[in-house]
Fold each of these.
Amino acid sequence: MQQNNVTVVSNYAIAKNVVRLDLRVEGKLPSITPGQFLTLSTGRGEQLLKRPFGIAAYGDQTVSVCFQIVGEGTKTLAKAPVGTQLEAVLPLGNGFPSGYRKVALIGGGVGVFPLMSFAKTHGVEFRSFLGFRSKEYVCCEKEFQAFGALSVCTDDGSYGAKGNAVDLFFESGFKPDAIFACGPLPMFRALKARCEGSDIPCYVSCEERMGCGVGACLVCTCDTLLGGKKRVCKDGPVFRVEELVL
Amino acid sequence: MQTSVSLCGVTLKNPIITASGTFGFGREYAEFYPLDKLGGISTKGLTLLPREGNPTPRIAETPSGILNAVGLQNPGVEAFICEDLPWLKQQGTVIFANAAGACESDYEKMAERLDGLVEFIELNISCPNVKAGGIAFGVYPESIYNITRLVKAKCPHTPLVVKLSPNVANIAENARMAEKGGADAISLVNTFTGMAVDARRRRPILANRTGGLSGPCIKPLALRMVYDAAQAVDIPVIGMGGIMTGEDVVEFLLCGATAVQVGTANISDPMAAARIADELCAFMQEQGISSVQELIGALKV
């Protein structure tokens, strides 16, 4: 992990209240694995904390993040003009495990963005199951279709199937070697319950309010069944769903 | 150019020490820069037994500050000595073991256990005294005198730094009492008690409701207290509270600090402490200051 100066190269809305930032990284971009995240300064001096965002896409000299505008930091970043210079610490966290050949990606709402980072992974069959609140929140279809089959649903049925991404996956009959998921807590609880006793390992990417983002300050802990408190930024954000107290 | 300082007979290569709770035991930041760039490291607060700490959320951002309520999560003093101390001793910096407790005998046992193992013991007395209705050890002058005296008797081989809480009526009096109790140095300030509220959800942001405020927003409060404490005692003072730049370090040295601690800055910027050490040198170069000694207590009033 390293601290980098970055420059905003594009900033645009991709769904209702959701923004994508493409950042050019100064210097050598460290090697990134899917599921890792970065922390990003907002550009406003009185906002001390860097904000954590899953890495949605990355290239030779660029990284991209997508986020919902939920608070003071994301409000500031959403208004950052092209050319804005920020600082980012990356790559952070453990990322999703490699070695599986057939993977189901299950994403809920803003949880879809870290899953987009599999776009460059070769030799793996991906099938994506994405759920959104309603039509105005649906995004990233093209990006997911580019690397695998995609099914989309919305809570209210205004786009795609009606329902949630977990049901969409179980109804599909797809039998993967592993499930990689990211989304709200109720989605994790549903996955934990339905994967109980199954031999398909299910990995979830968590979030928690963070401080340093590198594992030192201990504010972002989560509870595990057998391992006590773990740091979402360093021991995670990806955990086996059975490990977690949800 | 001379940046080293002597603290209770121990030489620190520069006055920059990282503050307890912001730096773990050093391993994470060692991935960003070699720890021998620092004058010293104060460890995460240690307790006799491992502690899990508070439920989350444990952090809230405030204008130019943060509130934290980690709750002293730490692996316990034994695990530190076995698993972290050997590695830390190889990093080429001075170690301050930060010790906490819930009652007098906890503190005494911590002091006994750590005596002789590290260069300094830093006493965290912002912990509630469970036998005194939960009032922190570091609130009343008599309590500070008492706990310092008891602890110093148990660590005769290791200089004792008493870390003062700012949530008090009279910081100068508290500093005097720490000195009278036998403290070899004092460090201040710890965090200020504060709260953050979510207006729409109508709830506190921290699960613990209150937390400790730190960061640039407290620097003016900290500078005043460091100045008053340094005026009140003869023992060395380690100053902290909102240091983000080399110039901030100079401000604390001028107010009477022999060394400083950098805490919240690390959370905002992983390179902070190393960068601040470089900025201090740059400031001295620019101002034609050949030794940090020229700055300590040099405030003109």
Amino acid sequence: MKVNTMKSNKNSTQQLLRNDGIPFDASLFEEININRSAVERRASTLSGRRSVKKQWQAAWLLKAISCIDLTTLAGDDTPSNVQRLCAKAKSPVRLDILEAMGMQDENIHVGAVCVYHNFIKEAVKGLQGSSIPVAAVSTGFPAGNIPLKERIRQIEISVTAGAKEIDIVVSRDLIIQSDWKTLYNEVAACRKACGDAHMKTILATGEISTYTKVAKASWVSMMAGSDFIKTSTGKEPVNATLPVSLVMIRTIREYYELTGYKVGFKPAGGISKAKQAVNWLVLIKEELGNDWLTPDLFRFGASSLLGDIERQLEHFVTGRYSAAFRHPMA
Amino acid sequence: MEYVKPRIEDSFSDSPVVKPVKKADLKSNGMHLPEIDRTTKMYIGGKQARPDGGYSVVINDTNGRYVGEVSKGNRKDIRNAVEAAHANNKWGSMTGHSRAQVLYYIAENLAIRKDEFANRLVQMTNQSHADAVQEVELSIERIYTYAALADKYDGHVHHTIHRNVTLAMPEAIGVMGVICPDESPLLGFISTVIPAITMGNNVIVIPSEKSPFSATDFYQILETSDVPAGTVNIVTGGKDELAQVLAKHDDVDGIWYFGTKKGCKDMEFLSADNMKRTWVNYGKYRDWSDKTQGEGQIFLRHASQIKNIWIPYGA
Amino acid sequence: MKIKEIYETMSYGPAPESAEEAIQFLDNHKRKFNLFINGKWVAPSSKEYFDSINPSTKEKLAQISEANEADVNKAVAAAKRALPEWANVGGHQRARYLYALARQIQKHSRLFAVLESLDNGKPIRETRDIDIPIVIRHFYHHAGWAQLRDTELKDYKELGVIGQIIPWNFPLMMLAWKIAPAIAMGNTIVLKPAESTSLTALLFAEICEQIGLPNGVVNIITGHGKTGATLVEHKDVNKIAFTGSTEVGKIIRRATAGTGKKLSLELGGKSPFIVFEDADLDSVVEGIVDAIWFNQGQVCCAGSRLLVQESIAEKLYKKIRTRMESLRIGNALDKSIDIGAIVDKSQLKVITDLVQLGVDEGSTLCQPSWACPKEGYFYPPTMFTDVSPSATIAQEEIFGPVLVAMSFRTHKEAVKLANNTRYGLACSVWTELRTSI
């Protein structure tokens, strides 16, 4: 069978058109209805439809690494653990493993380092000499329950401090109350505050009761100029799931078909196994196509995923199951 | 249920079950005033209909004595009856509860005319008046049974592996041919026609060939009991000839046949073309006066087909 | 392929499921299978064998016995002999046997899945994730009915000897649907699998041996249509259960007319798949994938007639065309394919001819840009648009991966179009407004 010829990551980086948003238009999403049963079925059978093994698995896992927003969002973060994280971000895989795969010259590194607002400076310092951006969670993470004015102020400070990417939290009450116009205005205001920094809009889908609302909130966020839409903060009781991701990426596809803007997608929370990462990549490939399999348009929000992938890669190279202590910690 | 059969079938008899016949009472047959001739017509689309062919058949009682004449239906009458049945979309779309109300009304009207129907049975079958009254009473009771079930024989909910509610709903087969047993002219008619319509089918009935008057009398009850036109259509005449026309008709969805072994074979064979559902007695006879044989949910099962509806939910 | 290259292209590699154990099973029988009668493997009286072919590769898998009248008589006699004891052993004992069958199939589930995919050409994903798990569920479920039979169904009794004739599209699943309820209720059976897909039935016979099912309760005889006809006509058979073509169903109806043999027929379909304008179209597309491209469309209740509301028809067709491109076709044992091989050469010809007829009759053909593998019996996913209800492809069951699409304006018209068929098997309705249903 014919396999579509794909562009390499580099090409798509150059061509990517940033989403500038479009005027608010409720008619574009008002009539959305999501069939929950069908979405669940698609999500649950998708990973069974594709099996990625051997060198394909290794390559896909390296791709997954390149898409990780290596994250620490803990109450006990300190400058030293942020520094360690940055070091890991720059060389996520042991050199001997990369060499065995012939990938030592490919500059494999994670997609970004994601920290709390107050550790941006540490992270920028830690990532010096690399092209890895710092992402900051601003706007009253994780609940977002602070006044809009303060959220905007936080974004501005984060950007000034050197964050190249801002993960924002939306006011969930607006979603719950279907106050789409206000939501649009809020997100648009945040986007304005971000300036050149890329904005990932967190919907906190674990707290949205229906997939239909998830789809509508995704539309509003994209219309308001989000560069990425993101499932969760990682702090909700339910975080990224395949079905909710499916709902969101289908809106991304529709939005692209309508506007020509490719919006990125970031699942976050609870993705800690290599196998899960492959499942998400399959989901993206099947529903959005290869164009989206790049850090410019796809990220994992994860803290422990990398460790599992490292072990899998070592197993691929040596044929022996690996142990966590064999890989440098973050 | 596809791999079992009711145990009761083992007690069916090899010949028709009939009530004892009294000897011919020639005395009362002697001199009597000629009655005003009443030609029984057929009943099609809620109207009394003359037979297309314009022939009648003489009906004698079991002692060979003249009882009356009945219309001789032919294939065109069957065709008209099938058309009439299809034209009726009222009955099938009524709720089970509403159909039950109509059935109770039929029973009520039959009860009012109990004596008339009993006398008719005596006249045709020469059974004792007491047996005849018993047959009418049982007929009324049987109508009650199906009226009672009309809103209760309503299916199941199944557990499946997906996010669905799965309903197994019995639905009417559609237009059915009901070929009644020759024995028990009234009870045999009631025991087959009533369960068939209980499930919402419209039926074309071939009543007892030998003793058709209980059925032809019955349309007056149908007319006065709010039964929509086309629900029950009665075509009298040669049973097997008419049954074959029904079996071959592609717009008939199901057929019940109570009669001879040969007739059963014909029904199944001729039904193959449009794969209509058949239910035949294979030459085994029920005792219609025995409740364990003459009524029950098995009749409703054969008068309906299960539609499984998988309803996903969640937004 | 180098990792670097894969990293750039993010392609899927081959992901073959190992056929080792299934090959071992075939070799254990020296690639030549006898009949399973009265708990024993017996050579066919005809001394004739025919080939079972792997449709993904056209390679010969094994030789299968052709049962003749003498063999059918033997099998029915065995079933008849086994009947009294099996009926009297009681619901609970039968429940234990059914439970044991379920467990034993479960233990060998991968072997069943691989063997089925080899023999039938259906993707290993489907046999592994759908067919075999359903088979297992079915035996568990009917173990339950066996247990309940003496209390819940005490007014009913077994029918006797059941002749069962099953099709090739879901060989083991159809076997389970036939055998499990039959033996649960105390019947004994003679089953004939389809000639092109006998292998999993023969493996099932081995499972019956392994769990010590009493001899004669399950008899498996292989062969072509004539074997089936002999079984249908056998005087000691009390019921025929048949799943297959409407044409053969009619023949069986006529052959058994008046004999008192109970009959269950599961026949063809041309089932409508109705989409209203308020439906979740992306979900609809996946529904279509499952409705017509599952099992290469060789499904009696396949949603083969797409009826779309006019207002969204073009939008949906576009989505379907896009989706077709990303479907993957290939060897049934590849874990990363959506569509496997058509069961055999003759069925492939039926499909090819009907599609050609569709083109000739003026419908618009749509197939993906990629080409099918050459080594097996493959047919690409296909959609016809601009189909009129009178077109042959809109009326006839194709039994292949071919969707015919037409649009409607109103609910009333949708129902009318849906019912405009000689078949009446299944229907799906897609709307998010529940009152549309």
Amino acid sequence: MKDVSFGQFYPVNSFVHRLDPRLKIVFLIAYIVAIFLATNFYELAACALVLLLIVFFARIPIGKVLRAVRGVTFLVLFTTALNLLFYKGDTVYWEWGIFCVSFEGIIFSVFLALRLVLLVVCSSMLTYTTTPVSLTDGVESLLTPLKWIRIPVHALALVMSIALRMIPVLMDETSRIKNAQMARGADFESGNIIKRVKATIPILVPLLLSALRRADELGDAMDARCYTGGDHRTKYKKLRFTWRDLVAFLLGAALIAGVVLMRIYLPASY
Amino acid sequence: MICRSACCGTRLGSSMKAITFTDVSFRYEDEGPYAVRHLNFSVEEGEFVAVLGHNGSGKSTLARLANGLLTPDEGTICVFSTQLGEKNLYDVRKNVGVVFQNPDNQTVATIVEDDVAFGAENVGLPREEIGKRIDFALKAVGMEEYRHATVARLSGGQKQRVAIAGVLALMPRIVILDESTAMLDPRGRREIVDGVTRLNREEHITVILITHFMEEALLADRAVVMNRGELVMEGAPAEIFERREELVTYNLALPRIGIICEKLRAGGMNVGYTLDAQELAKEIAECVS
Amino acid sequence: MRIVAEHLSYTYNPRSPFETAALKDVSLTIEEGEFFGIIGHTGSGKSTFVQHLNGLLRLPSSMKKYRPKKPKKGQTLPPKTVLTVGEFDLTDKKTDFRALRRSVGMVFQYPEYQLFAETVAEDVAFGLKNFSETKLSEEETAAAVRAALEVVGLDYEEMKDKSPFDLSGGQKRRVAIAGVIVTRPEVLVLDEPAAGLDPLGKREIMELLHKLHREWCRTVIIVSHDMDEISENCTRAAVFSEGTVRYVLPPRELFCHAQELTAMGLDVPLTAKLVSLLHERGIDIECDFTAADFCEKVLAYAAAHPKKERDEGGEA
């Protein structure tokens, strides 16, 4: 019943959904680099435009995108406030002790807030448009070189996928146990920090036991379905690089190039 | 590896044994009580067998022994003509699919089709073949339209059907349901029992249904009752249910319809033991004018 | 304690894509002293309803905002939501929810999974310690725990120092129930108390609930999807479907609505099913619910309509 949709897959069939997850992961990294390379509003606007296009092509409703931002509202406001009050600019409007609000400060904090919002939106676009399985497949494939230094990449990817699968189950379980203990008079909201930490024991112990029991049963179920590790496995969903991926790759490369070019040729002003 | 012990000899001309337990004993802890004791039990290929027993009677241990999740302390287990041993576990498991109790603890993937693919991927099948198997398995349990659905949003009965599909993707010749209906509501239970009955009748898969609900055993070809790790009763479901006093001593309660039959008989009405409401109504009607 | 709900609605995740109305304008009164049943499918709203009874789900505090004092022109004021448990008014934010939870015990599905303490005695005493205003002496605690364990059919001396995790499934469930009733709540609510048990375990749990109803808690409310369980145990039952209450009737009358229940995807109790099957064959027996009553009536019918070929259809 409860909504457990943080960063969860949004099932529609779109251009972006069908892209190779590896490309999406690489693109996300490139995009983050681009946001941090951007030093003026033109460049940031270019990044935002690209992101808007992605949202459009991914057919994710704007409301859903904003929900992702809502989760970090506090963080954004907090950092904006800090920058606003501590940035030492030249055109000072107001000053009090160590605090000062300046024109440059306002510009800078708005700039940072935008950056943060873009960062959150583009990361959530990855999880909205990529199923956990293809996401883990993508990570596994990108990390393949690590196999040469004997890091069990397949096992790590499987752990990640099972963790994603179990999140809703364990969240449900947590709220059930919490309700049951509250019905027995447990109080999780008052008292000092030590009291509160102690109060979580009646939730943590049953939760841990249940997680262990689930792990045990899941292990049996996997054994029963012939799981023996990653060696002889095949993959139903082969990651394939298609024309779509090529187009997306070119667009991504153009974006990064654009930001770099703007840095070189446009005057560095706001 | 061809089994050499007497139990596994395939008799030409008669139907083949799917699973044979010969004098199998097992306990979870050394010195602890036996979960299964000197068990002799076999299932014919294509048969639908119900295993009944109260909680702790050893019936679940049976399922875990049958596909090598547990190794017997004594005795031998043969699946078709292969004796279960460490070396052939993997091959045996391809033939013996087990569906467990908790619908939430059996799926590894978030999306239905990815989970169904898991077993087929494990045995290294080519991609196209896996796709075909997913089609087959989801169709067999009537979940085709949920292929791209999120497992977490399904009902308990639907999750169990996905778990069955995940097992079917390995094309096993035997499917064991280890109390797979215990945590479901009546509707979910019906979905599962109807589903495996169809598998047995249409796909000719050998089915072993482990349960503590007697009414679920009705559709089976044969029912066996376990108590304290031993096989204590065996026969057609209707026969078993007629031996009421015996069932009670094994802590098995008659389903409500059985209680009604019994009360009517005690009141002098000549009705047979049946667990089917239609049948009982017919019998009552025959007893009155 | 009398429980009164009027025009109760509840929506999960309001104003979001995942918005689901779990309760729609539910009105239901449960009298003191009843053994009340709530039936419905998974997702019918039955669990949401009972979670309101001890304030685990609260009425939205913003409710007043949606309820204008004066009706707009041409509109009537929506009916006022009422939810009271005894003297507790749950629509009032100032209600003492701790005191409420003490009076309304709640046993969740699979309650054995909430056990956490090192010993059985400690686990059972958890609620007692949480709810008591003053610190209880060891003797007082021990006496209360002993009484609770004994009423659920466990031996105090044998159990108290055991780890709850070493017990059998059935024992664990009894310990968990003892942990709820130890504070002597007036109302006891149980969500699927017999889930996952074998038939014998089910019967034992239902016997325990009747014992608790006689000796311990004035009102017992069980939530279930098993029609037979409800029909054989409850004084009255409410049928939930898609967030609304369809019927509130004694089981005897409830099961005369066999067709409607089937349409809701619910099972009909076995006896009701047999009555309708017999009706099709021209045998009319009054609609009834317990197995014993049903058999009595069939035998009486047989005695009144003996079969001619046979000497006596039913000798009784």
